[in-house]
Amino acid sequence: MVSLNNKAVIPTKFELDSEFKFRCHPACACFTRCCRNIETLLTPYDVIRMKQRLGLSSTEFLKKYTRYAEDEKTTHPLLYMRMDAENDLYCPFVTPGQGQGKGCNIYADRPAACRYYPVGQATHRIMDDKNEQPLHDEWYVIVKEDHCLGFQEEKKWTIADWRRDQDAALYDDMNREWKNIMMKQDLPKGDKIDGRRQQMFYMASYDIDMFRRYVLNSRFLEMFDVSPALLEKIREDDIELMQFGFDYLKYLLGISQQLQLKPHVAAAQKTRIAEMRAEEDAAREARIAEAEKMERGQ
User: Fold this and answer.
1) Which residues contact 270 (CB under 8 A, 6 or more apart)?
2) What spatial distance separates the first Cα and last Cα of the chain, rounded to whole Å?
3) How many domains is the chain built from?
4) Does the pLDDT at position 147 exceed 70?
5) Which is more confident, 286 or 180?
6) Do 242 and 251 contact (CB within 8 A), yes or no?
7) Residue 112: what pLDDT?
8) Would the pLDDT of 292 be above 90?
9) Percentage of the chain with pLDDT > 70?
10) 44 lies in some domain
């Protein structure tokens, strides 16, 4: 996922068998220009790959290399790569210039958006009338920026070929569930995410090491029904924890209940909700009675 330069997007819908010509290599006069002053939207899997590559905790990685923003429609927390202000706003993992030794220093673990470039993904959320469930219609676009000379090369690709060459399918698989969550704009009752839920959303999405500590060291396991087998996996495996985090996000946003409360916690919560509703009903009836009394007095 990446914030595309809309002016550079070719207004054509590309499918997997659509063809384009492109080749990027260190001898290109524009080499690494596409890595400067850009907004690269990061996914949870991007963070895991890069923080593992660098030998950092997720908390350290986020603090040093990223910046936070909010989606204007949903208020979902977003994460972008922070450009290096001391290096002409290049990506912090890029050695600028042309020729040998220049380019991406974490190439094997670069984010999904970098893998896809100059291809962009587009997703349109539509309703499946038969099953009354949203579907995500995906297609592709080509981003042809003025500075990029790679389009002058003769190397021909299909979108499918490009995805295979860039190992993009793995990233798509890892990012799909999170992407579906991020596209969930119709939260229950049209609610925006409050401050507390934003913090939890950010932690479960991006700060995976802090999320692990939260799950293991807080009252989380007293509240939620997590099997011993799954618990053992998320203690050590970042990918298992990431996928568990997606279930937590869906619970947090009221999208689904794949993550279940323990029975006694669910019962207590149900009782509290009933009591709150009873109090609200009583207060409303009292206001109505007071209003009627004032009308009779008039």
Assistant:
1) none
2) 64
3) 1
4) yes
5) 180
6) no
7) 96
8) no
9) 89
10) yes
With b for 16 or more beta-carbon neighbours within 10 A and e for fewer, the 218-236 pattern comes to: eeeeebbebeeeeeeebee
CA 18 to chain centre: 27
Confidence of residue 184 (pLDDT cuts 50, 70, 90): confident
The whole-angstrom separation of Cα 8 and Cα 11 is: 9
CA gap 159, 19 in Å, rounded = 7
- The H or E element spanning position 65 is helix 58-65
pLDDT of residue 109: 97
Split at pLDDT 50, 70, 90, the class of 133 is low
Collapse the DSSP code of 157 into the 3-class scheme (helix H, G, I; strand E, B; otherwise coil) and give the result: strand
Burial class (CB in 10 A: 0-12, 13-18, 19+), 204: buried
Tell me whether residue 69 is in a domain. yes
Backbone angles phi, psi at 213, to 5 degrees: -65, -40
**The domain containing residue 165 runs over which residues?**
6-182
Residue-level pLDDT at 1? 44
Residue 32 to residues 36, 149, 166, 285, Cα–Cα distance (Å): 7, 11, 17, 67
* CA separation for the pair 215, 209 (Å, rounded): 10
- The dihedrals phi and psi of 135, each to the nearest 5 degrees, come to -120, 150
Higher pLDDT, 14 or 122: 14
Neighbouring-strand partners of residue 14: 140
CB within 8 Å of 250: residues ≥ 6 apart: 181, 256, 257, 258, 259
CB 220 within 8 A of CB 212: no
- 59 within a domain of the structure (yes/no): yes
Q: Is residue 270 part of a domain?
A: no
DSSP SS3 for 205? helix
